[in-house]
Amino acid sequence: MPERKTKNAEFIDLLSDPTTVWPGRAYPLGATWDGEGVNFSIFSEHAVEVRLCLFDPDGKRQLAEIAMRWQTDLVWHCYLPEARPGQVYAYRVFGPYKPLEGHRFNPHKLLVDPYAKSFVGDILWSDAHFGYRIGSKREDLSFDRRDNASGMIKCRVIDPSFTWGEDRPPRTPWHDTVIYEAHVKGFTKLHPDVPAALRGTYAGLASEPMLDYLRRLGVTAVELMPIHEFVDERQLITKGLRNYWGYNTLGFFAPDLRYSASGRVDEFKTMVKRLHSAGIEVILDVVYNHTAEGNQLGPTLSFRGIDNTAYYRLWTEPRYYMDYTGCGNTLNMRHPRVLQLIMDSLRYWVLEMHVDGFRFDLAAALARELHAVDRLGAFFDIIHQDPVLSQVKLIAEPWDLGEGGYQVGNFPIGWTEWNGKYRDSVRSYWKGDEGVISELAYRLTGSSDLYQGGGRKPYASINLITAHDGFTLADLVSYDQKHNEANGEDNRDGADHNMSWNHGAEGPTEDPAINRLRAKQKRNFMATLFLSQGVPMLLAGDEIGHTQQGNNNAYCQDSELSWLRWNLNAEEREFLEFVQRMLRLRREHPAFRRRYFFRGQEIKGTGMKDLVWLRPEGQEMTDTEWHQPIARTLGLFLAGVLTEQDERGRQLRDDNFLLLLNAHHEQTPFVLPLFNGGAAWEVAVDTDHTARNGRHAAGEAYPLAARSLVLLRQVGS
């Protein structure tokens, strides 16, 4: 075992002073204030000694270093009767440094608690944070004896008490849910109506101007990009950049206080409480697939130094890490203590922080028990039987970077998924690609080809056009190519296949025809999204024309490139009103929020099918027409008599609707069908502002403008 001398601290020997430290308990893990003292416990299977280090309130000066003499079921523990909330602490863990065997213990490295509820300070990057000697020819096989405490982030004990009062989760049904993906800082950093001290914080997000905005917009849930304590990578700091997105987690129990105006954990709880009062759910984007420690050449900050072989997936040559995430490592879901860590974290955020659900980043990595993705893996089994977690919203990003990692449609009952096939087919259709209408039909109606066979419902599909990862909506219609030069990687980073179209000019242009077409395409995308069956997800800022100037991988852009701009011009205000109107229409009409898949069969007693696909002649599509590569115009009749009941068992009824889509570059006459005794049709939405509104007789040819979407409602004869 490597030796380490204790400097500038009192080493408390329990044998000589047994009253200072008590044995404590192995459970719960972490640092727990019980009203009288603090219990400390940490798991390490292969350690030979663990020391608890105590610091002053700022984390600058070490006050004591305590040997944790007690171990129960591989958990090291002790109890400090004089410790109080606010106590700053960290660990040093002793054991073998044998990278060829997978062990990377180094007691010279101060380590943070995997169960820490709050953190103090920042990591000041230096070579001392690495367990090996940077620059050594032996690389990570070498051993570094420098102490990293002075530049290391530390943990803080918290008092979890909070007055929740009458807080209740909104529990919005999936079929009524509209998700708004937002970044805590970027959402309010530039908002003029939010008090300056609160901009970019949890308090700012929950300020009255933002709550009012979210209510008027019509969303029911905010999906927050990662707020778990995360690390800015050294290579970004040296470039003058930051990890803006936050997919580099170090602490799975702590809200990152860089987003706190008060510097307190309570601020996050207050945000949740205020959002709930506004009827808005809080969903967290969580990153349990990897940590901030990277591969074998990464720093030693926590898990690696506590027990590398337990926490990480290692290859048969255990010096190296399995990497299904593209971030250097993958957490070891096969180990019961790692599963416990994740489940304890999830329950903590539900029970203590009152969040309403989770979106799991690269969720396929969590299902890899051996190498292949296993939909019946232990992770899913545990969640399904858990009385807390099985009742919250669970969203999978259904892919990772490993072999067989693309798992759209393969997650079990109880899970919803970011539907990448929806995104791709809708983008392809409005770009004018050939041969996509049959695929589009599935996506518009809830993707039954992906979800119905497994017993799931249309709301298993989280429909999206854009997300944080990729172009914004404004950039999707303005750029053919990515422009990521600001990231400092010579434009090599980010996806090359974006299915975007600049409509005749790359980036901003003064050409009025191009700008009109771009504006219409944005309306087409939003109308398609909100009129599709499934759960729509709107990227924050898309509704107000936010642009990242063609950057489709702004993960390191903590700047005005990423922050939303709120001084809207007339065109942007008009588009915001259009999005609000589309969301209001969706909310008012259950025909667009079906609980079950369409059957394509006649509804008893009506003489109508629940849906009918139509060609421009007003007749039902034939099998041959579905496969015509040049077909770009499609009609969808939705019957208002729904074969569904509401929560009180009442039959759901709505208007009959006709949805017309034309991705062709020319106007297409579309004959309005003679359904329901030849009743007339009234325009509810037309994304081409020059087209005719008002009523139109059945049998009439509606002038469906080039590259436009029209929604008509059937009215009395």
The strand line-up of the biggest sheet is 13-14-17-18-19-20-21-22
CATH secondary-structure class of the largest domain: Alpha Beta
Number of helices: 15
- Percentage of residues in strands: 15-25%
Which second-level CATH architecture of the largest domain applies?
A: Alpha-Beta Barrel
Question: Could you name the ranges where pLDDT drops below 50 across 5 or more consecutive residues?
Answer: 13-18
Quantity of strands, as a count: 34
User: What is the terminal-to-terminal distance?
Assistant: 88 Å
Quote the average pLDDT: 94
Shape: elongated
Largest sheet report: 8 strands, parallel, barrel
How many domains would you count in the coordinates? 3
Taking Cα atoms only, what radius of gyration do you get, to the nearest Å?
28 Å
| Structural class designation | alpha/beta
Topology:
Elements: E1 10-12, E2 30-33, E3 38-43, E4 49-55, E5 62-67, E6 70-72, E7 75-80, E8 88-94, E9 97-98, E10 103-104, E11 119-120, E12 154-156, E13 179-182, H1 184-188, H2 202-205, H3 208-217, E14 221-224, E15 228-230, H4 234-238, E16 249-255, H5 266-277, E17 281-286, H6 303-311, H7 336-351, E18 357-360, H8 378-385, E19 393-396, E20 416-418, H9 420-431, H10 437-444, H11 448-451, E21 461-464, H12 473-476, H13 512-531, E22 535-539, H14 570-588, E23 602-603, E24 608-609, E25 611-614, H15 623-626, E26 633-638, E27 641-645, E28 651-653, E29 657-662, E30 668-671, E31 681-686, E32 695-696, E33 701-704, E34 708-714
Parallel strand pairs: 1-5, 13-14, 13-22, 14-17, 17-18, 18-19, 19-20, 20-21, 21-22
Antiparallel strand pairs: 2-3, 3-7, 4-5, 4-8, 6-7, 8-12, 9-10, 11-12, 15-16, 23-24, 25-26, 26-29, 27-28, 29-34, 30-33, 31-32, 31-34
